[in-house]
Amino acid sequence: MLKFILKKLAMMIPMLVVISLVVFLGLRSTGIDPLTFMVPPEVQSQSPEIVEQLREDLGLNDPLLVQYFRWLGNLLKGDLGLTNKGEDIAGIIADRLPYTLELSLYAMLFSSIIGIGIGIISAIRQNGIVDYIGRVLAVLGQAVPQFLVGILMIWIFSIKMGIFPAANRVSPDATNAFVDAFMHLFLPVTTLTIGMVAVLMRYARNTMLDVLNSDYIKTARSKGIPEWKVYLKHGFRNAMKPVLVILMFRIPALIGGSVVIESVFSYPGIGTSMTNAITNMDYNLVLVITLIIAAVMLVASFMVDVLNALLDPRVRLGE
Amino acid sequence: MSNTNSMSIKEQNKSAASSLMKKNIRKFLRNKLAVFGLVVIVVITVACIVAAATGIDYGTPNPTIMKTPPNGEHMFGTDTIGRDMLARVLFGGCYSIFIGVFCAVMSSVLGAVLGAVSGYFGGKVDMCIVRVSELFQAFPQLVLVMMLVAILGTRSMGNMLFVFVITGWMTTFRMVRNEFMSLKGETYVKVCEAFGMSKSNVMFKQILPNVMTPIIVSTTTNVAYFILQEASLSFIGLGVADSTPTWGNILNAAKSIQVVQNQWWIWVFPGAAISLFVLAINFFGDGLRDVLDAKQQ
Amino acid sequence: MGKNFDSKEIILNVENLNTTFVSDQKKIRIVKNVSFQLKRGKALAVVGESGCGKSVTMNSIMRFLGRNAIIKADSIQYNALRDGKVTEYHIEKIDKPHGPEMRALRGPEMSMVFQDPMSSLNPVYKVGDQVAEGLLQHNKGMTKAQAREKVLEMFRKLGIPDPEERIDCYPHQFSGGMKQRVVIAIAMICNPELIICDEPTTALDVTIQAQIMELLKDMQVKDGKSIILITHNMGLVAEMADEVCVMYMGRVVEFGSLEDVFDHTSHPYTQALLRSVPVLGLADGQKLETIPGATPNPADLKGGCEFADRCPFAEDKCRAKDIPMFELSPGHRVRCLKYSSFPLAEGEPAAAEVK
User: How far is CA A103 from CA B129, C161, C236, in A?
Assistant: First the structure.
């Protein structure tokens, strides 16, 4: 088991290096000169030699591969570089990443509980009321764009009812940090959860239906054990694995969704940073955020591999 | 039985095919949601095309009628700079539907060709393409799109189409590749090869038709997917240039809290248009899957 | 309905069992007026082509069918005999298919061995735990260690080698034959009186088949278990069964003792089944017979004898209305209008129509 984990971890490193190299070269090949954003226009036109000097100092005249390895070296030393405006990227990330993680993890947690829960109940009570409501929600959840759900949320809960704030993450005059967090997180987390629930619910339902049709469920019933044991011990335990896998496949959608949702709720996470960085052509920042997202994705897929192994004796015993 | 024997095989095939077709159409018509989907798709598409063909004015700002609520003259009201919302929604539909259909078809074609090559030839070619597809899949598609937007710089329509196609082929690719890997061992493929049929002939005329059904169904649902994707991207301001009124670009106005609060018609109508159209495509796609999926028959 | 049997002798009495499936708002009758009795300590073989309703009949009795199945019966009576005392259970009156009454029966009274051992075991649990589960369920207060002892004992009895080691293995580490032994262990662990085996050997290869059948026969002969064997293998029937129930399109078409059915075959379908069995040493040029035509779709059956379209003796009256059951000799019943024209043993009394 330990060997399995170490092997998977070791495979993540080359993957990250390749991704960063591709993104680095891609962004540098755009032909956009970062100096045009760093140096005020009047300086550029009046003293081009200063610009040249700066370019030399920043190492922008070196071959791209040399630049890449210098960037990588700095990264390993913990220096993430500066934005075009001269802000420290590490500082921005440290400020904003926790907010994004907070948003996505809560959405992940709630959508898993609700989606898998409703999905399984729908499968057990097929064509029952939960199944029916679930199916309608799933259809709507897949048709209405997430940002529109967000706008509706703002319209109903912020503007019409005035319960929750429509933007930001922290109020300057907050007295209780917990209440403040709850108020600001409620709408974005709900919106993101709604988008995630639809697919998870559908998938959990179908998987559970497949499992409940299998022969070992009949074997379990033939032992005379209570139905809840049949469903939980024999059904759910076997449905867990495919559902976990789909949960992993939903993580890209979660991250993509949170980028959009952050934009709807003016939420100060790395999603808005990414959007702004692209609009401002701040490519150092784009590079770092992309790499963080890639790392999150790899960690997620790694975790699913491990959970998969824990849940399935065939994988665990290495066959 | 005797009269069927006297028919030529070709006639028999033809009559069998047409009766299967009739059966499928009947089956499809029984599925009310699918029929509803088809009707909505046709109505919206036709309305959009007609509007575009008659050249109604969607772009000229008219400061005298800014932010008018829906009325007899402007059924959907006007936007923040006095443009007719109905015209914008209809025109936007043309762009959005075009983007959805074009990207879905092209990404399916790309995925199918790569999947066929990868699955049929195997070996190093296969490994390379699979690695690339895994690299693409390691990223949230929206982030991938955003990166490509960053790399390409300008937000022209052509660039957008390119970005969507380039990031949308992986699912079709995997499906086609798996199918090719299992089918290339079949006897009939071996027979075709033994007869000296060219490789491209075997791949595209003999094997590919077996995978056409799932490709068609996934292409249909991908239309919805790309429409939503474009809308999201335009909403955060990274989509097609602002002057082009796609549904997403129109909704971009709703980033302003004032608009959400005071001019509901500016975001409700385009929002409803997207949702209704996507809903219709999903219903239609599900119906198509039920009819075409041989496993369920 | 008066009780016309001895509860000590008859372990299971089924009268007019009807099972209907609802799909797409259409009702399809799969099992029609099935009646049979199983004698205590005997083996009953239920034979017929795939789709004839034999599995559905047994699953209806065990109440394993989903919500889309409607089960109706005049009587499904199970008579338990413990310490000389008979307890009657009326399964047809139990409302909930998975409620406490039904669950109390499953395991200690009746249990089932399924067709495919590959999929009958839960892949994520150790086989020992799966066998012990039923035991722990029905014996409150039994410790895990005691249960494990019992399971080991059962494994030894069923000829699973190295039981101490195998008990902690997962199903995927077992071969097909060994898996089926585990499934039988699950069925046997609570010492039930009635065991329903649903084609227990179809998924196994021939040598293993014989071993499993041997095991089942042993259970019947040595432990006095009553067995219902669902199969389409006439060879197995001849070897295993005391009584035979032939089913076609959801109906019992012939029922009787092994001799009755094999030697005084009275239904054209049974005859056809027997003729289509390959026998070693089939003479050169002698063709193995097949039954002409295919089984009709249960959704579009008309009235009359279901077999009429494939029957060489069919007449107009066969298609007119449903065929009643005729009793040829005590315990030998057939659903055919032309029973009298078949070669029967001499001195056969005129058959009486039974309900």
Answer: 35, 55, 64
Report the distance separating Cα C50 and Cα B30, nearest Å: 31
ipTM above 0.90, yes or no: no
Whether B143 and A290 have beta carbons less than 8 Å apart is answered as: yes
Q: Do residues A271 and A258 lie in contact, with contact meaning Cβ atoms separated by under 8 Å?
A: yes
What percentage of chain A exceeds 90 in pLDDT?
A: 14
pLDDT in tens, C26-79: 788 889 899 999 999 999 999 988 888 888 999 999 988 888 888 999 989 999
A116-164 per-position pLDDT tens digit? 999 999 988 888 888 888 888 888 888 899 899 998 998 898 888 888 8
Unique residue bearing structure tokens 């089913």: C247
pLDDT band at C2 (very low <50, low <70, confident <90, very high): very low
Percentages helix, strand, coil for chain C (3-state, rounded to 5) are 35, 25, 40
> How many other C-beta atoms lie within 10 A of the C-beta of residue C209?
18
Instruction: In whole angstroms, give the CA distance from residue C29 to residue B9.
Output: 38
Strand partners, C37: C13
**A111: Cα separation from own chain's centroid:** 13
**Closest by alpha carbon to B264, among B254, B278, B252, B273?**
B254
Model pTM score: 0.79
For B131, list phi and psi in degrees, rounded to 5: -60, -45
Residues pairing with C228 in the sheet: C44, C196
Give the best residue of A108, A135, A154, A259 to mutate against chain B (max B CB count within 10 A): A259
List, for chain B, all residue ranges whose pLDDT scores fall below the cut of 50: 1-5, 295-297
Q: Which of A219, A223, A226 sits opposite C114 (nearest CB)?
A: A219
Tell me whether residues A227 and C123 touch, CB distance under 8 A. no
> Comparing C-alpha atoms, which of A292, A319, A302 is closest to residue A244?
A302
| Tokens 């993890």 -> residue | A105
Token representation of residue C266: 């009275």
Chain C environment of A313 (Cβ under 8 Å): 123-124, 170, 172
- Chains with 3+ CB–CB pairs under 8 A to A are B, C
Banded model confidence at residue A174, pLDDT cuts 50, 70, 90: confident
Give the rounded distance of the alpha carbon of B62 from its chain centre: 35
